Task: structure prediction
Amino acid sequence: MAAEFVLILNAGSSSLKFSIFETTDGESWKLDAKGSIEGLGSSPRLSIKNSAGSQIADQDLDRQVGGREALDILSEWLRKQYAGAQLQGVGHRVVHGGDRYRRPVLVDHETLEDLRRLIPLAPLHQPHNLNAIEAVFERFRCVPQVACFDTSFHRVHAPVAELIPLPWEICERMGLRRYGFHGLSFEYISSVLPKVAPEIARGRVIVAHLGNGASLCAIRNGKSVDCSSSYTALDGVCMGTRPGAVDPGAILRLFQGCGLSVADVECILYEKSGLLGISGISNDMRLLLASKDSRAALAVDYFVYQVSKQMGALVAVLGGLDGVVFTAGVGENSAEIRRRVCEAATWLGVKIDADANERRASRITTADSKVSAWVIPTNEELMIALHTGQLLGLMHAKA
Ligand code: ADP
Result:
């Protein structure tokens, strides 16, 4: 068959990330190109690499380039680069599917409007995700679009795991419940476990997605049971610029004691807390690990402490533990953070293999470790491509 292509978009407030996947057999997707336009609204830059990792575009863009212009630039590049090829579909990462969207969905104008209802639940991400869908409707009229949600994988939690213990009526009216995020990453990891780590694939696993955004997911037999993120992606473990769990009384105090506005507090919670807030230096784990500053060290200590504490809580939910998986920027690249988290989990039966961890082997625990630990690179884009292909009937079988 002739090659078929799908475009995968992850549109954020300051960046548009995209991947193009190709299939020639209708059975699996192969990455053809991957790129981003970062720095939207400040100093935008287009960067694209091919499947071999070679740079095929790298240029500064006009300062005025925002989300919509970024899509114009991408459309133009696609039309040149894939002249004659038919784009079969566009898959989007959409952060919030609320209670209704329990799996990926083909988006029409009505669905798009319905998804806008969820903007208050994810004000920093959802509008950009949805604007990208609208912009694609305008630019590629006949190309079907699929929305894949970060919340869907968690929509099988028990009611008790979803509860937010505020007055019932308010929770019902406002949709206040523990939704959970990073679902596409956890779903991808869960989908590859039978191949990569078959001995734990049907067991009790904690996946630690440790990036700039970070959360942990408890998985039993491939299904999400609970996770550290909650109503918003602010809850759970400490992140690059978000605090993770905080006593709500401390937030009240920001309003009462400092006279801050809602917008001020929102900015503090999403952009100024976490590793950056503690260290006063950076949200980048690499810089903090390399720094001699005592607050940088404290930020790293707090990160490891909270990840370990959350792991203990999720082990309690699972009733034991068979495996731990590290993924995302920090989880995949920092041997030191993995070592420290594994050492803190010695009581659970995790025995790290120092050499395997340093060389970033797939399995990083010793042969006699009761609980195994693994490093598995996440691939949210491929997960979206798989869902898009399946929903659009492009794939004969699940890859
Ligand atoms: P997100 O997708 O949430 O923006 P990523 O998963 O890309 O984040 O992770 C980005 C983070 O990974 C960076 O902030 C950086 O701190 C961290 N990181 C990347 N490489 C390393 C490394 N070698 N050591 C420690 N941290 C790293």
